[in-house]
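From the methods appendix. Each design record in this collection lists the tokenized structure first, followed by the designed amino acid sequence. Records were kept in a plain field format so they could be parsed without special tools. The example shown here is representative of the layout used throughout.

RECORD:
FOLD TOKENS (112 positions):
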């Protein structure tokens, strides 16, 4: 069976206007919930880690994906940097070694 991982390294999608980028990221994560075949895992790092915290516009969709069996992992260094270690609302915290290992083992990586 093929393993697909979504890697999100920013709270916005694309470069340029951050307001538009935030709207695009919300649409992207929602669209993941609508796929016939869900990704196996979602990895969050850098400002992408903030998407798993309170107030995140994509938190309901991440929770839905988790309930559907998608594993969600947030970079611990990133969570600590943004003072979110005790505030992550979905999935679990991991380290960069595990993130690299999961990316290496993936058959497909999707990056918004």
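DESIGN:
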């Amino acid at each position: 069976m093929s393993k697909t991982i979504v890697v999100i390294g920013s709270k916005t999608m694309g470069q340029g206007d951050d307001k538009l980028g935030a709207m695009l990221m919300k649409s992207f994560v929602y669209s993941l919930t609508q796929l016939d075949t869900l990704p196996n895992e979602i990895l969050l790092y850098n400002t992408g880690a903030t998407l798993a915290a309170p107030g995140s516009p994509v938190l309901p969709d991440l929770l839905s994906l988790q309930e559907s069996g998608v594993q969600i992992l947030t970079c611990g260094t990133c969570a600590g940097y943004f003072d979110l270690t005790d505030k992550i609302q979905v999935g679990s915290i991991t380290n960069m070694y595990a993130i690299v290992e999961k990316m290496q083992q993936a058959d497909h990586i999707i990056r918004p």
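APPENDIX NOTE: The mean pLDDT is 97.
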